[in-house]
Amino acid sequence: MMKVKQYLTPLIIMGWIAIIGALINLFINWAELSYAEGWGVVGMIGIILYGSIALTLGLLIRLITKNLKLRILIELILIALAASYIVFYSGRF
Fold first, then answer.
1. CA pair distance 65, 62, nearest whole angstrom
2. Given 12, 15, 33, 42, which residue has the most CB atoms within 10 angstroms?
3. Residue 66 has what DSSP assignment?
4. Contact 67/34 with Cβ under 8 angstroms?
5. How far is residue 5 from each of residues 11, 17, 55, 65, measured CA to CA in Å?
6. Structural domain boundaries of the chain?
7. What separation in angstroms does the CA of 91 have from each of 29, 46, 49, 79, 86?
């Protein structure tokens, strides 16, 4: 029987935070997000999609690797690569 800590890896936690945060923001700020062609809603759907991809990758990595330390290392590298891509190619630098 697997323990809870083996399910809670960084990528799965980040995915759930992104999905839940986007949904809460979507419900609280619906009027502001849907104003002027609704591009804020499109952005929230994009964040929910990123969270879903993170959850899917986390579950696939869990199926492929059984070693918890290796799984966490792989997920942290993926998170760092994704964050670097977003920072360097977002047009802010």
1. 6
2. 15
3. -
4. no
5. 13, 17, 16, 15
6. 10-86
7. 26, 18, 21, 19, 9
Beta strands in 1-93 (DSSP E): none
Closest-CA residue to 58 (of 19, 29, 24, 25):
19
For the record, the structure tokens of 31 come out as: 């009027």
Residue whose pair of structure tokens reads 């002027």 in the numeric block:
36
**CB 44: neighbour CB atoms within 10 A?**
21
pTM: 0.80
Q: One digit per residue, pLDDT tens: the chain, 93 residues?
A: 556 666 788 899 999 999 999 999 999 998 888 888 888 889 899 999 999 999 999 999 999 998 989 999 999 999 999 888 888 887 665
